[in-house]
Amino acid sequence: MGNQLAHPATGKRYRSPVSPGTGWPGDIATDATSVATDAPEVAALAAQADIAELTARSSVCRACPRLVAWREEVARTKRRSFADQPYWGRPIPGFGDVAPRLLIVGLAPAAHGGNRTGRIFTGDRSGDWLFAALYQVGFASQPESAHAADGLHLTGARVVAAVRCAPPGNAPTSAERTACSAWLDREVGLALSSLQAVVALGSVAWAAALGALNRNGFVVPSPRPRFSHGKEVMVDGLWLLGCYHPSQQNTFTGRLTETMLEEVFGRAAELVALRPATP
Q1: Which of 10, 48, 124, 277 is the most buried (most CB within 10 A)?
Q2: How far is CA 49 from the centre of its chain?
Q3: Domains (ranges, CATH) in the chain?
Q4: Over the stretch 86-138, which tens digit does the pLDDT of each residue have?
């Protein structure tokens, strides 16, 4: 588990990876939280969970041995620039409004972002871009997302990952995506009473969102709509929007610009009536 290091915001000391119930900001899991060790257990623990149980249980999942080994190895070895910090090193649960009008689906946590900070899209450049855009259109309370104790909260929106552990090479296997899908399915199901739109960040998230909607009883168009940036599809009364993932590969090359990102989330804000439609 390594030596204890001080959290950059609170100063409290933790080992990496962080054990549940030790007081990490935002961690509601305890040492008594049920732990899934394979895909059937994920499905069983997710099936009837409320949002608090889902958040806690998904954050201690150990169903995929390759992902568990990788996320914990990254937490122990660390990146040199974060060598003085503890790493979360566990799955990353959903974050944001518990009754969202907008659900934002990403691929998986970054090894030195969410896997370090314990909050999705937090502590890396992708998160800088995402939360700045959400702030600009009114979903986020602040444009920065540095760590899990920075005071950020979302209104009307919730951010989740299709796969909740940082994967080697940012590439989860098909089996890992399938095992993790029950967490997403339940997150979607719990949001249905308020949900009006979904933004999928990239093609993998697009496929995961369509699958989760289908498994929650939505009639998906046939043939299934293909991902593209800015695409809008009505899925049985719910809007699905496509957006390039704010990865460094996309933002450094100009494939995705700040304006493009803000336009997608501005459109989402209009669709869920967070702000008036643009004349």
Answers
A1: 124
A2: 18
A3: 5-271 (3.40.470.10)
A4: 999 999 999 999 999 999 999 999 999 999 999 999 999 999 999 999 999 99
